[in-house]
Amino acid sequence: MLELEVNGRLFRVEAGPDTPLLWVLRDHLGLTGTKFGCGIGVCGSCTVHLDGVPTRSCQVPAGRLGGVAIKTIEGLSPDRSHPVQRAWIAEQVPQCGYCQAGMIMTATALLERNPSPADDEIDRAMTNLCRCGSYPRVRRAIHVASGEMKKPHGDPEP
Amino acid sequence: MAILNLSRREFLQASGILGTGLLLGWRASAAGLRNGAAVSPLVHIGSDGGVTLFVERAEMGQGVHSGLAQLVAEELEIDWSRVRVENRALDGGRPGVTTGGSSSVRQEWEPMQRAGAAAREMLVRAASLTWKAPPEECRASGGEVVHGPSSRRLGYGELAARASELPVPQSLELKPAHERHLIGRSVTRLDLPAKVDGTARYGMDVKVEGMLYAVPSMSPVFGGELVSADTAAALARPGVRHVVEIPNGLAVVADHYWQARKGLEALQPRFAGGDTEFDSRGYSLRMRKALDTPGVPVFEQGNVEEAFAGARVVEARYEVPYLAQACMEPMNCTASVAKDRCEVWAPTQGPGRLRDAVAEAVGLPVQGITVHTTLMGGGFGRRFEPDFAIQAALASQAVGRPVKLIWSREDDTRHAYYRPACAAELRAALDADGRPRGLSQHVAGPWPRRGLPGWLRAWVGDLEKELGGPLVPDFVPRAISSRLPPLLTRGVAGIVAGGGPPTGYSIPTQRSEYSLADSGVPIGWWRSVAASQLAFFTECFVDELAAATGSDPYAYRHALASPKQRRVLEAAAALSDWRRPLPAGRGRGMALYSSFGTTVCQVVELASAGDSISVEHVYCTVDCGQVLNPDSVEAQMEGSILFGLTAALRGEITLRDGQVEQGNFHDYPLLGLAEAPQITVELLEGEGPPQGIGEPGTPPIAPAVTNALYAATGRRIRTLPLERHLREPSSG
Per the domain annotation, does B412 fall within a domain? Predict the structure, then answer.
């Protein structure tokens, strides 16, 4: 029996401790927003936050995550109101969308650490792969979200 | 197609609609009628004013669901945000609709607008009856009907019931272009909210009550068969419930995915047979050898022999490798097979073909099978194939429970239906001004039987066996084969050698030939299909002709281009500032190509030092006829460019001892964000019907990069992928 804290809630899961977090999230907790793409930690479709750090969840055995705060795409906001989600829609980033939860989780972690990333910082952080070619828009949307997040809270839209 | 009023309860229920409202649809084809499924729903307006559009085209990132909704909504005069799009299940033996060939918007452009117009007219008529006012005084706008003189208003929801009792108007007029408010606008895509919060449901996310998870074990050599496996060891693993047979392999079935994977690790399958000798280097030699003897004519215009007599001849040989589609979502399918029926949830581009294949595999009539097309994590042509669905259905049938079968990335890379590897020889006869007066293209590659109707495939296959070789190359003399119906010449060679003239330029005589270099590697559709290699051959070659005659590549093309091409070409030259000099080590190259009705010109600027290539900027101009959603076209161009650029720089599936050598993204790498060039797209004001946008952006990028590399370094690489062949000094 594993105990995991996901999106602020505690879950008890009947799964082997070596089961990758990705599959516990998807198959046991029904949190299917986190995607399987490669299984070797390269593509980043399965990116979640572990204590705020963007992590490839296919590479982390769930048994090692006691006491770690896990955040998935479902926990980012209750209503798609996170500035990154809003920027993703404003810039019409996703095509097939399969890699985008991972992209968004990586981008939100980047902006939490570095609210105004330069292009080369975005290059280094955004190692997620996209087959549809959304990269130019991902870059644009990160800049847009960065601008939004720097505005004082509660400012009306211009 | 006649639009029908389907607002009766039975149709509403069959379409899964709760409550009442106005439901319009159309009659399925004659084949559908025979199978007892007469009509298809299309658009429903509920009593709450909500609008649901039922589509059969699959959404795989190309924005087709939004695009079709945009067409209906234009004429229906509704609030864009109130439209919902649903994929309609394929059931009752109806014919399926495929999604591919950049065809959806091209084919649905008018029917969708007509359906919207019909619903609007009925709602207006219902309002006029309610108000006892002449219909001319009533007009539809923003989801309601307004009575001009009195300013009275009724929402569509309030009118739906009354409208549902009216006949469908016989004659419908579509809006003139200047009155459109949605078509031609970059409206927000409807599918994106669910794609940023994790609620979008892909095939991978399907959940069916009581389902088990399965993973396949397939022969690593194509055509190989299972010899033995340690089934007991797999079954001994926790959660593993069954090991079942699938074509050429086994599937491990467990309570959870990870348990099935662990079971597979214990299975230790051994396979034998198939073409274990096949290797890519040997195949390359065979393709090049096939170019040494005359091929089968695919296309001929004018007397090419005559054009070559006494002319200055330029020739070059090119080669491209096998490529996998590498959709981000690996192949998967969920199936639930019962005694007399079967339900399938599949990310598929071809639900009809998939349904037929599943029916055959599980031994049920097609009428008993329902296919739910899910959202797809990419398609790119791979998901026309039903192989993964057959596996899921057989596994479910064997265990008597619903099964979700999931491929690993390695399965996906090693069991694709690949873009064919092929080699080509291009020859041109130049006149005194350096213009080609004759051009011939000879492509050698695998024989693409696929895509022919089943009976013909079987017939051709039988003949092939009897003859000990393929039908067209060995059996039919050129004099006859050039007169054969296109199915046998273009159809057969199409996916490898194309069907038309090698180039769209005005060259007086052109010829295209095809030679077989046999291979057991499965081939299929890959974004832009044959154009992906043919554009590389011809657009690199035209660049070589320009170089051979000391001409500027732009000016050389300009002299040969049609007026339509010229417009796109000129726009690209202007957009990229073509004549602006570049510093040493940098180069600029272009390619111009028309496919799927759309003409695209791309100019690439890159820097190269040693054996590295850094593509910095891609300028892209497009004429795709009338534009439905400009932002979607731009997104498709960006995506097509990056898809093609990945392939041009490093895409390569190679085989050794009959096995695909690549397996995952570390050895079949995709371009990353940091390497993505800046992309500038310009859409030209297009006239005429809308054309394809999902694929035509891919073909020009490989030759444009190759030509830019030549401009930067003086090295003419003629074999893809570029990064590898730039490192090998003998290449070129």
Answer: no
